[in-house]
Amino acid sequence: MRNRMILLLCLVLATALVVTPIASAAKLRIVSSISGGKDPEEVELFAKEVSEHIGMEVEWIRPSGDDWLQTALRAGERFDLIYLNTPFMDVLVAEGALMPLTDFIKNSPILSDPDVIPPEEWEMLRYPDGEIYSVFNKYEGGTMPVIRADWLEKLGLDIPETLDDFYNVLKAFKEQDPDGNGIDDTYGLTTAGLYDIQPFMGAFGVKQRYVIDEQGRRTIPYASDAAIPGYEWLNKLYEEGILDPNFVTNSTADMRNLFLSDRVGMNTYWDMWVGLYNSTRLNEDPNTEFRAMGIAGPVGPNGERILRRGDPSIWAIPINAQNPEGAKKFLEFWHTEAGIRMGSLGVKGHDYIEHPDGTLELTEIGKLHNMDHGVPRWYNKNVVNPFGSLPGVKEAEEIINQYATLEISTADWPRAEPIVNEYAFKAITGQMPAAEAVREMRKLLLEQGLIDY
Amino acid sequence: MGKLRFRKYGQLYLMAVPTIIYFLVFSVYPIIQGLYTSTQKPRLLGGGVYVGLANYREVLKDRTFWQALNNTLILSGGMIALGVVIPFIVAIALHELPFPPLRKLTQTVIYTPHLFSWVVVAGIWIQVLSPDRGLVNELVKLFGGKPIHFLADTRWIRPMIILLNSWKSTGYNAVIYYAALSSLDPQIYEAATVDGATRWQKITKLTIPLLMPTVGVVFMLSAVGALRIFDQVFVLRNVATTRTINVLMTYVYDLGMVQFRLGHATAASFLVAAVGILTIGFLRRSMRVDQTDMA
Description:
heterodimer, A: alpha/beta, D-Maltodextrin-Binding Protein, domain 2, 6-stranded mixed beta sheet, 5-stranded mixed beta sheet, 15 strands, B: mainly alpha, MetI-like fold, two-stranded antiparallel ribbon, 78% helix
């Protein structure tokens, strides 16, 4: 009897030992501070629907930012899939902390399909060792000047092309009461800090962040003499009250609010936001005259324009993931129609409803969430937005595709950035002549070994 | 002898055990772990490579560290000076107020900013100091001046942080002074009145000297707090002013959380702790706070 009891106990223990890892392996732990539900309740609904699609239990963790992920990883937490920006990915790749996905992508019928993700796009994610360690979350757009097209029409102005055109339009926005309230309360241009003056600096052939020449020597064009007239032009706007004086302390939310509340005629922001601006105002008032439009930056003397393409936002699998196969299954799902529908529209029955005839309708919550649950736009050409794209986005996207390029960051950029920003700001606000500011900026960057020439 | 002592005090030692365990777990262990990390090049997913004192050497060679130390000393100096003097004047003024209800109301109003988080304080003052419709700049314009971007101009940002810190902490420090004032023996003042002392003489010859031990305490408290400033700089810094107001604690944060260099960040935080201990030790010795307290 006693022996039987011992045998039974051993069997139970053995079963538990075998079953527990299987059960835990079937669970997929995903961390994303961007994609997924918008609030704790929706995060749960989101995880539930993803579980149903990929056939395994999903725990979806939505922290407030990257700090949380970094702390959790250092504390020994294990995740199967993490959402990253490229600087964070660079660190993890350098430490050998991410699983190479090159073969998986090559062999995946979904991810290797050129209609799902254009082959050339993968090169953005390839490291010098030839490996790809991540998969795109969404199609990234770029930043560009977004202008009040209705104000242009009202004041009888054309879309600006040259720097002089831009100056005249922005000055008119400041001085000619474009909102018609009879009060001198408008500005021509606003930004959030020096994010993003690239369209204007681009007219002088100057690119933000690093440029690396063929010999591998690094420089920062914003610290070169070519940038001086760019700062002087912006300083002119500042001195004449055309540039919002709060541009340095503005958050991106402040900047958006100024644009949406008729206080400013132009800001520099994501192409996607052209549509979000328009839909926000249309939702408030279907008869609004408000019309945001994305335009190319001023053309340079050699006909060039430079806009900024956004760094890719990506998914990666840590090497200590317990369910890497589940993570790969999710990555494929995320780029299918069902996955894209979740990443854009959200949760079925919560953000949208599907009628018996197959047509979709956004709920009030879905309207508030603006068809963005991490994937407002996608690469997959086979998937059409059932509601069409937001007004103005398609045209803005074409401009971005034509002129926007990725910026080059190095590990030194976080140290170089405060120096560049401080002196650029001093030049723009007239605390220092632009030539002197550039000289000081360059001197400091050279002294600290942050540029080579 | 030892056994006898243990028998006599055993229960007391036993009662101290939870506290000792608490300190071992939450203070001693993290410090040892931190020292270990500061000698490593840690990996995000655990483990690391031993690098000896290289992290310390690199931090000490980093100009940004010295700039942060310089900023910390300048901001701390200003904060300590205002944090000691202004509440002192406020407390004496409060004490001299003849109507208790007015005294209480003033005390409450002055103390209220201390209850706000720095996020709220920054929100309020960004609005008040804004060059676009901000109260202060509207006044500047009224008198024919040109708007000043107080929080984005490197010439203004340090004084602004010191003043805002003073605005927030005056009420708290004034309460400490006021408590000390209230505990002064009234008979001394009565004797001074009999001797014909004026109100001003009572303040300068009695109140101020009698409050000096409390001044020492407030000075020490302000000094300890000033070396650890983080919140106010974190919420008020922007692209234009980062280098002018970055302090040691934000330097450590940037190293660890923005640049992912945890080994360097830990080494830097031990250097910051060393600066703090040395400074406080020097101040204690030169001010003889312990002795004055006992006196």
